Amino acid sequence: MKAQPPAVSIAAHNSDNRARLKQQREQLLLQLAQQILQQEGFAGLTMDRLTAASEVSKGTIYNHFCSKEDLITALSVDSLQRQLLLFQQALSVSGHSRERALALHYAYFLFSTTEPTLFLCLLSAATPAVVEKSSASRLAQRQALEQQLLGFCQQVIRQALAENAISLQGGCSIEELTYLQWAQAFGANALYRPAQQMGFFQGLAQQQLVLAGVNLMLDGLGWRPLSADFDYQSCWQRIALALQQQAPQAQS
Amino acid sequence: MKAQPPAVSIAAHNSDNRARLKQQREQLLLQLAQQILQQEGFAGLTMDRLTAASEVSKGTIYNHFCSKEDLITALSVDSLQRQLLLFQQALSVSGHSRERALALHYAYFLFSTTEPTLFLCLLSAATPAVVEKSSASRLAQRQALEQQLLGFCQQVIRQALAENAISLQGGCSIEELTYLQWAQAFGANALYRPAQQMGFFQGLAQQQLVLAGVNLMLDGLGWRPLSADFDYQSCWQRIALALQQQAPQAQS
DNA sequence: ACCTGAACACCGTTCAAGT
DNA sequence: ACCTGAACACCGTTCAAGT
User: Fold this and answer.
1) Closest Cα to residue A179, out of B211, B179, B40, B170?
2) In degrees rounded to 5, what are phi and psi of residue A221?
3) Which of A126, B154, B199, B219 has the fewest Cβ atoms within 10 Å of its own Cβ atom?
């Protein structure tokens, strides 16, 4: 008695299909853009070159990205999606709350080193020149993903409170703690290359620095067990192994 | 008996004068660029507009900056020079080593809020697109200034060691500590606006976050007196007053 | 030796025509 | 409804001519 349900279903299916194909093409374009970025540097990424590398025309590319800057923001969204996957994997390693916090820091560090180009996109996307010319929807997408990432961090802090591993006296909120850890991780990973290039430290590995930074902050917070009472160096290596096994090789 | 010392002296004087005038003009150009940046945003800063705002021609501007990106890097050099002045003022406040470390963090925070545009230039200048197209000499200038700034931080850590306020066991070097504090400060100040914009914290002031972050790190390090034994909140306010008095108003 | 600004080249963006 | 690519516009950069 209902009016042609199959027709509706086919229409919906077609529309879905079309959206899925568009989505796939966008993913391909992003991959090509990333490749150009790696091979030619940021100055070498032009819309002409992306057009040449792809099999679509300029107009179609502008159908996906409203500006070159929007393309950069799209790459940063891609970055955050990968980070999200890494965070999920990181939270699947077992251990007490501080080990899990460390796992998240490791995931962040791992991403910054295995995908340096995408990590730099994230930095570029924070720049006003890029924000000013990106579409509102793309910026909203980025924000939503960042919120999800921070959500994972808050989750671990809540676990710590439940375990009685920390006590938040003196008005230090969960949000505040999350933010400070984010800031520490962002700074320690983003500034490593510049600092190294100016010869600031001789043989200090980024890994060790990040681990030391986390330990400093979490010890300061009194997150038990303290680094004096637990071997976080071994823990770090265990996390590294666990995450490497889950993602044997990075995509080409 | 010597050959015309006056002539040489006059020549030198003229040459000095010329260099000084060029330097002055460059300073003026940077000021104008900053003004355009504030009024029109990063997308609004074009070489044409800068030419129009100045009283020189395009060719002359390219005599100062080899590219638009070089101009951004020059603005970041200007930023670092101002930061250096603030650091010097910060170190003139009296107190034990941890108070002096706090003073440096305050100076960094103060700069990031009173000169948001220049602070963003610093962020942009860290971006590959800008680095790739900046002159080697300008990049070297920036590096030298950053090294000077980090030198101030190391100085305070050495003071702490001399005072026996900290003990660096376990291979944690002065450079490592300096880097981690830089990373923390950079992250906490650079991410504040984005985080605020996504509504991550309701009424948390940047100041309080930065202070909390520093306390966490320095407590974790065991830098005496610990925050439980000393009123760093008051100390922070005392530093704020001291730095405001030395520089009553920021330049327009 | 330095300044000028017209000319050039490149590249981001649009849009009329096509399917 | 979507794709195309020629045309456009803007803007970074250069350089022959001038002082």
Assistant:
1) B211
2) -80, -20
3) B199
Above 90 in pLDDT, residue B223?
yes
Q: Which A residues in the span 202-231 are in contact with B, Cβ-Cβ below 8 Å?
A: 204, 209, 212-213, 215-221
The rounded percent of chain B whose pLDDT value lies above 90 is 83
Alpha-carbon dihedral A65, A71, A76, A79, rounded to 10 degrees: 90
Q: In angstroms, rounded to a whole number, what is the distance separating the alpha carbons of residues A204 and A189?
A: 13
From chain B, the residues in CB contact with A218 under 8 A are 220
Residue A185 CB neighbours (<10 A):
24
The pLDDT assigned to A17 comes to 78
Between the alpha carbon of residue A153 and those of residues A140, A171, B146, B203, the distances in Å are 20, 18, 32, 20
Nearest of B100, B160, B109, B84 to residue A183 by alpha carbon:
B109
* B67 three-state secondary structure: coil
pLDDT at B200 (0 to 100)? 87
CA distances from A211 to A14, A101, B172 (A): 50, 11, 12
User: In which residue are the tokens 């000095």 written?
Assistant: B16
Token pair 């944690």: residue: B172
Find all residues with CB under 8 Å of A122, minimum gap 6, and list them: A76, A79, A80
Specify the pLDDT at position B3: 41
